TrEMBL record:
It comes from Perca flavescens (American yellow perch). PANTHER family: ADENOMATOUS POLYPOSIS COLI PROTEIN 2, ADENOMATOUS POLYPOSIS COLI PROTEIN FAMILY. Residues 59-80 are annotated as: Disordered. This is Adenomatous polyposis coli N-terminal dimerisation domain-containing protein. GO terms for molecular function: beta-catenin binding; gamma-catenin binding; microtubule binding. One of its GO terms (biological process) is negative regulation of canonical Wnt signaling pathway.
């Protein structure tokens, strides 16, 4: 009788572990998809920042070449 009860307990534990495993797999998949989305967004933001930096450098060059170094120094701020 003890062997039957212990088999039933083991069967119940196995089923509980299967459910937990299934839940964790879904959670991992969701997290992986979310991480991929964040990586894509980050990559897009980095590209936008590169473009902005390039545009700012062009503008700085234009200001410097037109003799407007006073404006350039104002834009750089007190920390530079």
């Amino acid at each position: 009788m003890a062997a039957v009860a212990s088999y039933d307990q083991l069967a119940h534990q196995v089923e509980a572990l299967r459910k937990e495993n299934s839940h964790l797999r879904r959670e991992l998949e969701d997290n992986s998809q979310h991480l991929s989305k964040l990586e894509t967004e980050t990559s897009g933001m980095k590209e936008v920042l590169k473009q902005l930096q390039s545009k700012l450098e062009q503008e700085a060059g234009t200001l410097a070449s037109s003799g407007r170094s006073d404006v350039l120094h104002q834009l750089k701020g007190p920390n530079h």
